[in-house]
Amino acid sequence: MALRLAKTLPPEMRPPLLRLASVDKMFNGDVVALKNMTLQVNAGDFLSLLGPSGCGKSTALRIIADLIRPTRGRVEWAWAGRHERGDLGVVFQDPTLMPWATVAHNVWLPFRLAGKSFASVKGDVLRVLRLVGLEEFINAYPRELSGGMRMRVSIARAIVTSPRLILMDEPFAALDEITRHKLNNDLLTLKQQIGCTVIFVTHSVFESVFLSDRIAVMAARPGRVVTELKVDAPTPRGEAFRTSPDYAAQARHASHALRDAMGEPA
Q1: Rounded to whole angstroms, how far apart are CA atoms 217 and 117?
Q2: Which residue in 185, 163, 162 sits closest to 172, CA to CA?
């Protein structure tokens, strides 16, 4: 519970949730995806991993999710040394929904894998579908939904177990700008309602500034965090912030940091 209460604290006062400690990841013995990556994530953070394609953002996320193991280094968790089933929710760029299952049964999947019947958790499924605005589509199939609606189903599936941490790997990259902005707004509202921690992978400077408390700027070859930025703006945020001079100034600052990380001239 203390980790969830951290959402009410300013970023600098939040307790640590996890830490990547000197993590390396190599593929095929010679491809260095990550080298000496160290990063602390605090309870209640909205932390974006910002960097160009191929800098290891998604690799870092998969290491945190325990989908792959680091070659060297470790992930240090604040609770019991490791995460347990239900502590993590993961949203990928592709919604990865089961086409033969209804919206409700797609959201039920994490509970199903844990051996829980649909009837026993139906209330939880309906609750999160209301949170993402899909309560009228519980019996629809993925083919009947728009791209934005399918992503909402994926988000609902990730949060249905009330995880402490949600990992999001460029979930809005394939969507049009209008839908992307709407889902950015909704994501901040949803995070405030459920009180979780979010690690969000993106290559969009503007998206990272709009969403985040902190931005970890990454460079490639080898992949690692080269600088961290604090986004000093009140929450909740909406169109007033997106069109403000402060947003433009912070996006410009993040853009300069990303350019420096990529070694590009000013």
Answers
A1: 42
A2: 185
Measured over all CA atoms, what is the biggest interatomic distance in the chain, rounded to whole angstroms?
Answer: 59
Token pair belonging to 254: 């993040």
Domain limits, the chain = 2-83+165-261, 93-163
Whether the Cβ atoms of residue 40 and residue 85 lie closer than 8 Å to each other: no
Kindly report the pTM of this predicted structure: 0.91
Distance (Å, rounded) from C-alpha 147 to C-alpha 151? Answer: 6
How far is 212 from 233, CA to CA, in rounded Å? 9
pLDDT score recorded for residue 25: 96
Residue 162 Rama label (left phi>0; alpha psi -120 to 50; beta): left
**Where do runs of H (alpha helix) occur along the chain?**
2-5, 57-64, 103-113, 118-131, 147-159, 177-194, 205-211, 239-242, 245-261
Cα angle 236, 241, 242 (rounded to 5 degrees) comes to 115
Backbone angles phi, psi at 95, to 5 degrees: -55, -20
DSSP 81: T
CB distance 56 to 39 below 8 Å: no
- One-letter identity of residue 128: V
pLDDT digits over 152-167, tens only?
999 999 999 999 899 9
Alpha-carbon gap, residue 196 to 110, rounded angstroms: 17
Pick the CATH number of 2-83+165-261 from 2.115.10.20, 3.40.50.300, 2.60.40.420, 3.60.110.10: 3.40.50.300
Residues 240-257 pLDDT 10s: 999 999 999 999 999 999
How far is it, in rounded angstroms, from Cα 90 to Cα 88? 7
Nearest of 190, 13, 166 to residue 91 by alpha carbon: 166
